[in-house]
Amino acid sequence: MNARMSSLPFLSWDVRKARIVVLVVAALAFAAKMALAAATRGPADVRFFWGFARAIARTDPVHVYAEPLTWLPVYNHPPLASWMLLVLHELAVNGVPWTSLIRFPACLADFVTVLLVFEIVRRRAALRTAVSCALGAALCPVLVATSGYHGNTDSVAVMFAFAAAHLLADRGRPLAAGAAAALCVSVKLIPVVAVPLFFAAAWRAGRPVFTRFTAAAGLLFLAVWGPVIAAVPGPLKAKVLEYAGGDFSFWGVVRFARWAGVPEEYVQLLRGPGHWLIVAAVMATGVWLVRRRPAELPVAVAVVLGLLLLLSTASGVQYLAWPAAGLFVIGLWQGLAYGVVVGGVTASVYTGQRPVHWTLTEMAFGALGWLVLAVCVATGVRRVLTAARREARALPVIAGPRTGSRPTTPTAN
User: CA 243 to CA 301: how far, in whole Å?
Assistant: First the structure.
């Protein structure tokens, strides 16, 4: 189905019934996460964000990056998060409980992401599969724990990333897609690995789409980031753009390196300049996939978010949310396998209220979850390449001189 037809409001009754089911379950999951947020104090990040919000209210969302904040961790959040914290602070001082407020954005983002998973998958698989994947994302244990208990902004950034992919690849709305792309990296930098994919897909769709997408993304990016870049470029660069994560190593390649007895100087090299090479490699992989099959942009976004966590040199329990919903875009069993294995780890860590101190058993199951994620990412890559080969075989071969023009995909505005 092309983008213009898929955007028509005349949907079959089966699709509308499926959408209602997904909407109801997503709403129930949102309510359950908010109930968890209201009933628990959460990790230290809940208190840290209150400190950040107070500092922003005392100064402003622009100059907070120049504040020392010696009693708090590094404030490494992009400018849109600062404005969000300012709004939440105003609500908190007027009586809304902070422990629920700070976790509301992540819970709401999960709700929207579930709807996006349904819309993305139903265009690429059977309706029953789309419903199953969406319900799996709604009930994913990793997202219940990270959004309902931990909070933070990871799920919000992921939501905007998949919104951009869906709007560009499936709905043919480059202006809205460009806005969503700018917003995803303005909440948290994690989806920066997906940004080159958006531009690659827009370029393949033709000059008008690329122009609209770039204009929307560029103007909104300047509106959000411009004041901070102009006022405090040094602190922004040091605290946000160059932030390498905490020195925890309970997950991933750094944990494996230390288990293997790799000298610490090489580990720090990996965590320092080496992590830029990892980010570049993840971006290159995603662009390569999009060039092979632009229509599979949402799947490619799921792949790069999973690949980034797989190769990440930083550890954080909330980071485990990065690929959780996207794996359901790749496939049902991929999302379920990751959700169950890694969800067990997050539940255990949060139940013990020690997110930065994992037991050996939790790290062992975390390693198993890492292997599960590796398999899921590999299947995502295979899915895109298989779709590209199938499309190539289906294209008719037309004899005649080559024009040098690139293929385009149908779009709707």
Answer: 22
